[in-house]
Every structure is written in structure tokens, then in C-alpha cells.
Design brief:
heterodimer; A: 139 residues; five-stranded parallel beta sheet; 6 helices; 5 strands; 40% helix; B: 365 residues; alpha/beta; Rossmann fold; Heat Shock Protein 90; 3 domains; five-stranded mixed beta sheet; 12 strands; His_kinase_dom (chain B); CheY-like_superfamily (chain B); EC 2.7.13.3 (chain B); Sig_transdc_His_kin-like_C (chain B)
Chain lengths: 139, 365
């Protein structure tokens, strides 16, 4: 269980089954009550844009898939990089992928916005550990 | 313009030469003529010729000058120089500057010129074919790369979803499964995934550039062992590393080799063995590293020893699951980095692989 009261998780994955799986895992592990699932990275960006005007942006974990049609995980990161610092600083990106592709993996590690890369299938233990690690210094 | 005929442009300032050439060769070839380099260049803008013959002695610009001028914009046509003078300087100049295929003396001998044209065209056609093949190969290469990429993603992604569902069903206890069907599904999925990973490994080995970096064998071996330890917790692993000097090699390929061999040593154990063992010994010398990986497993039938490195070969004396590609990848990876492998095995007693890998550490500099 993770005790960040208003922590929310944004899921971005074109695979509906994985979205459901990750949502359930977050519920079972009691990571957060607020899960926002997007099957398309553009919609997630739109949502994040609408957050810019909020007086307070809640701490956010983004589980981001790499390979997606239209806008892939790296495209998303590039677009999100231009967002204001006050929203970016609240968002912590965990990449989630089944990719074994060397360049995908090294690109992920090279990106300063990515906190961690987790392999699919996402394991409850690993997810909790990754989120705990992010907020270790906050609580 | 017939496609299968040889197209020739002949440039000469003497009109009677142009006419004589046409008279001799017009039945065999498609001939275009020009009486100056300038006119020749104009013609080349609209007509795609295979062979260009030019006279050396022309006012304004000589044959060599003309060839030199067009060689960058029109590299493909074969160039033949024609001259009445047998001036060595001219010949050397022509060959060096204008990339000339051949040099013909005036007055030309019809048979000789004919032969020269034929030879020139043969080279032209071969070069063209080669270029087309290169384009084709590059395309296939590119497609193969994309195929590997989508194999690694499109095939694996749904498998990982299935594994995720199985994991979830265990976490929330939502599925009653008294016969353990979910476990069976999981085993099958992992087997399939293992095979996909082997294929990706094989292609990465054959396509990735070899890169040399420092390798710490102690670290690398323990990393490999930690991957396979859980498959058979009874196995006692023994690692001896004698690395008095630095070793440089291709980390990806060496770990592929070790992973496959250690995986085999773990997998092919005797079910009734009380003390299953896997021993690994590494000795690093300035110019090579020698690795010994031995086990007291089921061993390999002597008649199979010659075949184990062949693609998709699987021994019939065991009922272990395998793809028959692991040792093939080992051999291929060793070929890439200039290593060798030897195997000794006694059926029922165990197997030992001895690998030798060149040390790319440059001690001389």
C-alpha cells in the first residue's frame, strides 16, 4: 500500500487488455484510487493540457507504453516535454513495454523524464516498488 | 527506341568518320552521332546511352576533356577513346582523368571496335545488374530489420498480456482452477516466448556490429547464473575466474554464448542426480580467454556430437523441451567474434564445453 493521499495514475497503452490489467493491479496493490486510462497518447496529452489551469496539480504517475500507433511513447515524451514545469514536476513517467529491442531500451534509459522501465507482464511487486521509490523522499 | 539494343553515342569533328561508323555499325547498334563535345553533351541530356565513343583530337574540347567533364554527372556509360595518334601521354591522361574503358587507334579495325563495344556493354550491363541487386538487397535488409522489430513486439505483446492475466488471476483468486490449467498455459506461453526470444537473439547476432568493451567475467557469469538458478535450485554452481589481465570483447555475444550454455547445463540434468553440478572456469590471458563449462548432466550421445551445432537439431534421447537453436546461436556468435568451441561428453555422465575467445585488449599500444 502506498500512502500518498491524492496520488493518481495515468495509464497510456493502446492495448485494452493491458490497460485493464494495470488498472486491476493498481487497485489490488492499493497504489491509488484515481486511475485514468487512455488508449491513445494524444488523449492523455489533451487531458494533461486541461490540468494546466488547476490551482494544484496532484502527484501523478504515468505508466507509458512504448509502441503505440500514431503517437508512440517517445513521441508523447517529446510533446510533454514542452509542458510547463509545474505540471511536469508533478508527473513521474514509468515506461512499460514488452519490447526487447535494444534501441527502444537504450532510448528509454537515455530519456531524463523516464524514472524507470518495467517489462510486461507488469508484476505487482515491481510496480509497487517503483512507485514507492519515486515517492520515497516525499513522505 | 528498342530497349534491348546497345545505344552508342559517337563524337567526332570529322563528319566522314561519323558516316563511316554509322555505315559499319548501324545494323548492330542504335547509333547517335555528334560533331563536337558541345553537341554531344546536348544529346546526352535527352538520350540515355550505354557507350560513348569520342575522338581525342577535336577543336574546342578534346575527347579526354569531354569525358572528364561528364564523368560525375553521367558515371554509368562506358567510355571509349578514339585517336589517330598513339601518344602515350594522351593514353595515360585519358585513363587517369576520364575513367576510360578502352582506347582504340584510328583508323579503327571493324572487328576490334566491335569486340570492344561488346565487352564494354557487358561491363555496363553487369554493373547495372549489380546496382539493382544492391538496391534489392538493401530493401530486403530493411524489411528484415522491420520484421525483427515487429516480431519482438507484435508477437510478444499479446503473450505478455496473457501472462499478465494469469498473474492477476492468482493475485485476486478469481479463478477456480483445481486441475492447474493456468499453470499449463503459463508453461506453454513461456516456451513460445523463449522461442521468439531465441529468434530475436539469432538475428541480433547476425546483424549487430561487433563492439568491444571491458568484461568482468566474474560479474557476467554470476549474472547468467542468477537468471537460471531458480529453474533447478538443487544445482550447485561453482565459478572460478582467473582474470589477472583486462579482457575486452563483445559483451552481447559473450553473454548470449554463456546464457545458452548455462541454460543447457541447467536444463539437461539427470532427474535422479543427488548432487547436480555446473562448473564454470575462466582463464584470461593477454590474447585470449578460455572458458570451461561442465555439468554432470545426462550427456550427449557420441553419434550426436557432430550435429549439436546445427540449426534445429534436437537430440532424441531426451524429452526436454528445446528449440534446437541455442547451440546454433552459440556457434554463430562465436564465428562473429572469432572464437572457437569444443565439446566433450559422456552419455549419462556429463558434458563439457571449452570456449576460446580472442582478447581484444590492445596490449602492444
Amino acid at each position: 500500500m502506498i500512502s500518498i493521499p491524492d496520488l493518481r495514475v495515468i495509464l497510456i497503452d493502446d492495448n485494452e487488455v493491458d490497460l485493464l490489467l494495470h488498472e486491476k493491479l493498481i487497485a489490488i496493490q492499493q497504489i491509488s484510487r484515481t486511475v485514468l486510462a487512455f488508449n491513445n497518447a494524444n488523449k492523455a496529452l489533451e487531458f494533461l493540457s486541461s490540468n494546466i489551469t488547476l490551482p494544484r496539480i496532484p502527484p501523478t504517475v504515468i505508466l507509458l507504453d512504448i509502441q503505440m500507433p500514431e503517437m508512440d511513447g517517445f513521441d508523447f515524451l517529446e510533446a510533454f516535454d514542452s509542458y510547463p514545469a509545474r505540471i511536469k514536476s508533478q508527473c513521474h513517467v514509468i515506461m512499460v513495454s514488452s519490447s526487447l529491442d535494444y534501441s527502444d531500451i537504450s532510448r528509454t534509459y537515455a530519456n531524463p523524464m523516464v524514472v524507470k522501465l518495467l517489462k510486461k507482464p507488469l508484476l505487482a511487486k515491481e510496480l509497487t516498488a517503483a512507485v514507492t521509490e519515486i515517492f520515497r523522499d516525499f513522505s | 527506341m528498342k530497349e534491348n539494343r546497345i545505344r552508342i553515342l559517337y563524337i567526332d569533328d570529322e563528319v566522314h568518320n561519323l558516316n563511316a561508323f554509322k555505315a559499319s555499325f548501324r545494323r548492330s547498334y542504335e547509333i547517335y552521332t555528334a560533331n563536337s563535345a558541345q553537341e554531344g553533351k546536348q544529346l546526352l541530356k535527352s538520350i540515355d546511352v550505354h557507350i560513348i565513343i569520342a575522338d581525342q583530337k577535336m577543336p574546342v574540347s578534346t575527347g579526354v576533356e569531354f569525358f572528364n567533364e561528364i564523368k560525375d554527372t553521367l558515371p554509368d556509360p562506358m567510355r571509349i577513346l578514339l585517336t589517330g595518334y598513339t601518344d602515350v601521354e594522351d593514353i595515360i591522361d585519358a585513363i587517369n582523368k576520364g575513367h576510360i574503358f578502352s582506347y582504340i587507334k584510328k583508323p579503327w579495325d571493324e572487328h576490334e571496335l566491335h569486340r570492344t563495344i561488346q565487352n564494354a556493354y557487358e561491363i555496363y550491363a553487369t554493373r547495372k545488374q549489380l546496382k539493382e541487386k544492391i538496391v534489392e538487397l538493401e530493401k530486403i535488409n530493411d524489411e528484415l530489420n522491420r520484421f525483427i522489430y515487429s516480431t519482438s513486439h507484435d508477437l510478444r505483446s499479446p503473450l505478455m498480456s496473457v501472462l499478465g492475466i494469469i498473474n492477476l488471476s492468482r493475485l485476486d483468486n478469481s479463478v477456480t482452477d483445481p486441475n492447474g490449467y493456468l499453470n499449463m498455459i503459463e508453461v506453454c506461453i513461456q516456451k513460445l516466448d523463449g522461442f521468439i526470444q531465441k529468434i530475436i537473439e539469432y538475428y541480433r547476432n547476425s546483424r549487430l556490429d561487433v563492439e568491444y568493451e571491458k568484461i568482468n567475467f566474474d560479474h557476467l557469469l554470476n549474472e547468467c547464473i542468477s537468471q537460471f538458478k531458480h529453474q533447478n535450485t538443487a544445482i550447485e554452481f561453482q565459478v572460478t575466474v582467473d582474470q589477472p589481465v583486462d579482457f575486452k570483447g563483445d559483451t552481447f555475444r559473450i553473454s548470449v554464448i554463456l546464457n545458452n550454455l548455462i541454460s543447457n547445463a541447467v536444463k539437461y540434468q539427470k532427474p535422479d542426480e543427488v548432487h547436480p553440478k555446473v562448473n564454470m572456469a575462466v582463464k584470461v590471458e593477454p590474447h585470449k580467454a578460455t572458458l570451461l563449462i561442465s555439468d554432470n548432466g545426462i550427456g550427449i550421445l557420441s553419434e550426436h556430437l557432430n550435429n549439436i551445432f546445427k540449426m534445429f537439431f534436437r537430440s532424441k534421447n531426451n524429452n526436454k523441451p528445446g528449440s534446437g537453436i541455442g547451440l546454433y546461436i552459440v556457434k554463430e556468435a562465436l564465428n562473429k567474434i572469432g572464437g572457437t568451441i569444443n565439446v566433450e561428453s559422456k552419455y549419462g555422465e556429463g558434458t563439457q564445453f571449452e570456449i576460446s575467445i580472442p582478447n581484444r585488449n590492445d596490449f602492444d599500444s
